């Protein structure tokens, strides 16, 4: 096990975020700075240019949403302030005065698994003062106070610092909770510290705190007070919103304000927390600050430690007395340095106040009073006149800190001693983070004596954007344990805190779901987290785990090499797997070997059998059950794969006797032979495909193993990893049987003995049959159908306790697959074979239960009869829809249909499909009537479909749907007058109210305004079409209104038509058809229609 970079979330709508934050601005691509800066020094590249000690990186998803990757060349996110909640459920991206909040949402991915995404939940402007902009943001999740909580946050507060000095608190939906001006200088950095359970007795328990850094001041807010105030503000805002009021009374909030002295510039800080000096350190400080005559009394005081970085000195250490403890140098402070006394022994505290509603106006005109800061001098620092610090990142256990500077160095500080213990070079503009890993539950907890405490290891994560790499280093003097090649415009997001509002009581039994370090890639929107195993922190060369990791790396190197003999690969893999001691690493090595695409099957089988035999020879109590089960299942699958390969290439096949079902299938096939031939001519159109995607390509062993999993009871479960992989597995198992190249019964026996369920085998058989329709309908039917009819039906397909009203789930699965498939020809052939097999089995059962004078009537056979009739109808309809359009590709792609889609399309589904075909064929109404009544060269297929659907495709119903289709297409392109003229023969009232009245009103208002025929530019602007199209539209409107007048005068003389549907399609459920909607329309108002007719005639004449 080694370091890995795992994607756990993906940010959606990054293009929308960027466009909102950079409104009216054009992003320029980054310049290629070839000149070296003054402070930039060269670095040794032999380390990071060597081969990384990490596994293969997970490649990005190939079907990334286009909007997330288009035009992302410029490093736009480097100009933004980005903050991620420790729970990874809220991301804030801000720039200037705008901000976007993205919250977590779950959705089903392409593989069917639930995936977390971050989508925009709020975007807007945060600034309230003129000229201020966002300078720092953090997201603080607040713990729930409910007893049933398990560690998830109740809600998340967004704390925003501005260049005006204001600090404002928002909810995750952008609702302002409170705002306060703490200092008139810009806010440089916001940081938070939350409660952590002490790992050892005697360790000082740290309090929660929010720290706000200004150029010359530091404000700290107590976490408990902040937690209570934020909850109260949120409740009051909710009550005020419910009551329709904006007046709230927030509670007071305690804070301390320190004036940082003796540093030229400060850019970042870290609040280490409360520390207590030992007696020796107390005496040392007293002697240093008070001189020879200094005296020490009382217990050592508790102090809060703060570390700042910047310039003059490069790093500064500040200490502030906490609570009411005795001053450290109370007797000598006044005589030595009053300035130091006031800095060390005075506590500066204040109160955050809010204005009520009556004082709101004066507060806007005059800034609030800013309390002065209590001076605090630097205790000591790391002076370096030329070096300027840029950032500081404190470790989770508050013992180490990483500091970056403008020299391209990363310095590791010992916080307690105040010294630099390590330095890395060559990391300009680096971003830092920490990963803390706990030791696994192993020997230390299972010892017979008192269990030893679990050890913790810390790793420093360094992201070098200029080199585009992410490195993980062991501390304090540990080696680099991982490196990953990432983009050059990523952001390393490290919070350094968890949930606020947690204490030693409420955290009992909680599982805090937080991410320590996340890497955000703005190009793809991927959020990745770093996983580091604990054993990488062990420096013992004799460690068994370290030795096992070395063996695993050795195997990985062998598998990556291009030219390796199979015998050498097998021997090396056996040696490595047998030498590895830890079961988890041995399992990882075996899985990497089985997933290798170059390893032959014989090698995989030999290595797996050797490992399996080795585990069998060991003590059963010392063997890992999961590893043994994995070896057994993989060995079983490899044996099955080898046997199937041998069966698919037999020397010769003996002829099989013809079954009774095959004879019945030939009779049914002769009945539908003509329809199948016409369908095959249109279905076998030439297409482009790649050789590696061909279903006849050999199935690799690793693909076979990835789709089959062994269960505890010896059964084998087929995993569906997508339609393409499913069809390839089905072709590997059954295509040789269907084409007569493999012994059918021997293959089926092997699959049955392997423990694969008959339902999954049936699903694989139907999928390959329906997917490879072109080969099925173009090969000689007697061969394929003969072998399909020989495939055995497993016991239980028809229950022995059969009665005429029972339906077999086995045959229901076949029917469901056929009616849902768009391959009409292959589905009909499969249904014919299954119908004949079901009829044979039911007849045999009925002969033993029913007297000879009676004939068995079965619900199963009735459903098969309906299914076959429906598939024959779909075949005829699909054949018609596949006729090529005379317009070529401009006519659009042919529609696909299946029995299920026709059922879900309602009563007008068939007529709607034919209407779309009529539009693709560009048939005029007169030509359509001629085909339906008189016949013609194009009428053969259409008449055949009309005969199969006499009710659904009655002339009136078909013309109504064609009318509606033409007017829909005209509405998409109103400058094509032919489509509109073709639609004036049907349901005029619905057409007028849905598509025409808005354009007609716009044209009338336009002509009234200009007083004459409008020009082309005005017509395009107001009506949406050119002036010629408007003229044609007005003429067509006159004809439509004339039809409405004539129809209204004859509405009482003609009875409304009766809408019927064929008997086999009577179960169709879906939206109402156009004809049904037309019959529900109310009658028109004759004088109003006549008035519109005159208006349309005048407008047409004016145009």
UniProtKB/TrEMBL annotation:
Belongs to the Rab3-GAP regulatory subunit family. GO terms for cellular component: cytoplasm. Residues 49-68 are annotated as: Disordered. Residues 76-493 form the Rab3-GAP regulatory subunit N-terminal domain. It holds the Pfam family RAB3GAP2_C. It is found in: Cytoplasm. The gene is rab3gap2. Keywords: Cytoplasm, GTPase activation. One of its GO terms (molecular function) is GTPase activator activity. InterPro entries: Rab3GAP2 (IPR026059), RAB3GAP2_C (IPR029257), RAB3GAP_N (IPR032839). Residues 760-932, 938-1103 form the Rab3GAP regulatory subunit C-terminal domain. It comes from the Eukaryota. This is RAB3 GTPase activating protein subunit 2 (non-catalytic). Residues 51-60 have a biased composition (Basic and acidic residues). PANTHER family: RAB3 GTPASE-ACTIVATING PROTEIN NON-CATALYTIC SUBUNIT (PTHR12472:SF0), RAB3-GAP REGULATORY DOMAIN (PTHR12472).
């Amino acid at each position: 096990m080694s370091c890995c970079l795992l994607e756990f979330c993906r940010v959606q709508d990054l293009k929308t975020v960027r466009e909102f934050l950079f409104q009216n601005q054009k992003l320029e691509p980054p310049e290629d700075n070839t000149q070296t800066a003054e402070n930039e020094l060269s670095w040794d590249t032999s380390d990071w240019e060597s081969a990384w000690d990490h596994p293969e990186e997970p490649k990005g998803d190939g079907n990334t949403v286009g909007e997330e990757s288009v035009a992302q060349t410029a490093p736009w996110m480097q100009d933004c302030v980005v903050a991620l909640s420790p729970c990874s459920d809220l991301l804030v991206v801000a720039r200037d005065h705008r901000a976007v909040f993205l919250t977590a949402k779950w959705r089903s991915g392409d593989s069917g698994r639930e995936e977390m995404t971050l989508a925009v939940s709020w975007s807007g402007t945060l600034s309230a003062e003129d000229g201020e902009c966002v300078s720092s943001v953090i997201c603080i999740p607040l713990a729930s106070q409910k007893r049933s909580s398990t560690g998830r946050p109740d809600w998340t507060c967004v704390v925003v610092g501005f260049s005006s000095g204001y600090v404002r608190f928002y909810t995750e939906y952008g609702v302002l909770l409170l705002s306060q001006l703490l200092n008139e200088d810009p806010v440089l950095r916001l940081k938070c510290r939350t409660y952590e359970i002490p790992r050892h007795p005697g360790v000082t328990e740290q309090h929660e705190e929010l720290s706000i850094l200004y150029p010359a001041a530091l404000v700290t807010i107590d976490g408990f007070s902040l937690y209570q105030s934020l909850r109260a503000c949120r409740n009051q805002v909710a009550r005020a919103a419910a009551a329709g009021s904006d007046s709230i009374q927030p509670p007071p909030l305690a804070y301390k304000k320190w004036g940082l002295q003796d540093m030229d510039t400060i850019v970042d800080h870290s609040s280490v927390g409360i520390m207590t000096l030992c007696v020796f350190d107390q005496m040392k400080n007293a002697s240093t600050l008070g001189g020879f005559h200094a005296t020490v009394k009382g217990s050592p005081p508790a102090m809060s430690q703060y570390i700042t970085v910047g310039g003059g000195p490069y790093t500064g250490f500040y200490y502030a007395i906490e609570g009411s403890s005795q001053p450290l140098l109370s007797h000598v402070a006044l005589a030595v340095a009053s300035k130091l006394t006031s800095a060390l022994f005075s506590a500066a505290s204040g109160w955050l106040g809010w204005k009520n509603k009556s004082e709101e106006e004066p507060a806007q005109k005059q800034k609030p009073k800013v309390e002065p800061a209590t001076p605090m001098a630097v205790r000591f620092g790391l002076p370096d006149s030329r070096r300027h610090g840029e950032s500081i990142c404190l470790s989770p256990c508050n013992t180490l800190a990483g500091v970056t500077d403008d020299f391209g160095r990363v310095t590791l500080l010992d916080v307690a001693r105040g010294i630099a213990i390590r330095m890395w070079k060559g990391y300009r503009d680096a971003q830092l983070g920490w990963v803390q890993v706990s030791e696994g539950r192993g020997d230390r907890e299972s010892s017979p004596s008192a269990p030893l405490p679990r050890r913790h290891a810390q790793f420093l994560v360094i992201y070098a954007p200029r080199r585009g790499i992410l490195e993980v280093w062991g501390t304090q003097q540990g080696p680099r344990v991982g490196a990953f090649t990432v983009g050059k415009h990523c952001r390393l997001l490290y919070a350094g805190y968890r949930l606020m509002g947690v204490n030693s009581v409420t955290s009992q039994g909680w599982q805090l779901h937080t991410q320590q370090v996340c890497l955000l890639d703005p190009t793809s929107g991927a959020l990745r987290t770093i996983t580091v195993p604990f054993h990488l922190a062990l420096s013992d060369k004799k460690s068994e785990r370290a030795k096992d990791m070395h063996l695993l790396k050795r195997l990985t190197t062998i598998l990556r090499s291009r030219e390796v003999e199979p015998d050498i690969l097998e021997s090396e893999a056996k040696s490595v797997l047998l030498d590895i001691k830890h079961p988890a690493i041995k399992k990882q090595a075996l899985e990497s070997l089985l997933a290798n695409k170059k390893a032959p099957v014989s090698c995989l089988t030999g290595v797996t059998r050797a490992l399996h035999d080795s585990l069998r020879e060991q003590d059963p109590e010392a063997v890992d059950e999961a590893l043994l089960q994995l070896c057994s299942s993989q060995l079983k699958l490899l044996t099955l794969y080898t046997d199937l390969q041998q069966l698919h290439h037999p020397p010769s096949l003996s002829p099989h006797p013809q079954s009774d079902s095959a004879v019945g299938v030939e009779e049914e096939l002769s009945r539908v032979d003509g329809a199948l031939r016409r369908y095959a001519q249109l279905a076998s159109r030439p297409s482009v495909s790649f050789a590696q995607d061909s279903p006849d390509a050999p199935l690799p062993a690793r693909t076979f193993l990835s789709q089959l999993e062994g269960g505890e009871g010896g059964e084998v479960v087929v995993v569906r990893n997508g339609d393409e992989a499913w069809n390839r597995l089905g072709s590997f198992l059954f295509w040789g049987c269907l084409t007569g190249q493999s012994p059918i019964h021997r293959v089926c026996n092997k699959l049955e003995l392997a423990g694969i369920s008959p339902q999954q085998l049936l699903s694989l058989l139907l999928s390959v049959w329906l997917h490879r329709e072109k080969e099925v309908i173009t090969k000689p039917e007697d061969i394929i159908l003969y072998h399909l009819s020989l495939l055995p039906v497993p016991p239980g397909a028809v229950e022995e306790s059969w009665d005429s009203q029972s339906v077999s789930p086995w045959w229901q699965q076949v029917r469901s697959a056929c009616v849902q498939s768009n391959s009409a020809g292959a589905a009909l052939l499969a249904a014919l074979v299954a119908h004949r097999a079901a009829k044979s089995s039911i007849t045999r059962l009925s002969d033993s239960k029913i007297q000879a004078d009676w004939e068995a009537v079965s619900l199963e056979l009735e459903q098969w009869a309906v299914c076959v009739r429906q598939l024959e109808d779909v075949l005829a309809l699909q054949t018609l829809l596949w006729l090529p359009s005379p317009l070529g590709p401009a006519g659009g792609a042919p529609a696909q249909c299946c029995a299920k889609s026709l059922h879900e399309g309602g009563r007008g589904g068939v007529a709607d499909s034919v209407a779309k075909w009529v539009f693709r064929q560009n048939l005029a109404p007169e030509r359509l009537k001629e085909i339906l009544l008189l016949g013609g060269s194009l009428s053969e297929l259409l008449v055949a479909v009309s005969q199969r659907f006499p009710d659904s495709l009655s002339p009136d119903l078909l013309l109504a749907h064609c009318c509606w289709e033409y007017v829909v297409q005209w509405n998409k392109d109103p400058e094509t007058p032919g489509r509109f003229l073709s639609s004036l023969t049907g349901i005029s009232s619905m057409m007028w109210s849905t598509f025409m009245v808005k354009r007609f009103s716009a044209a009338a208002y336009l002509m009234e305004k200009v007083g004459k025929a409008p020009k082309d530019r005005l017509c395009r602007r107001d009506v949406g079409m050119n002036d010629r199209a408007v003229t044609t539209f007005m003429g067509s409107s006159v004809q439509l209104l004339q039809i409405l007048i004539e129809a209204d005068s004859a509405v009482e003389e003609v009875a409304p038509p009766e809408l019927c549907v064929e008997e086999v399609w009577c179960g169709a459920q879906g939206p109402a058809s156009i004809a049904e909607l037309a019959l529900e329309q109310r009658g028109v108002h004759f004088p109003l229609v006549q008035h519109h007719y005159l208006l349309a005639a005048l407008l047409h004449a004016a145009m």
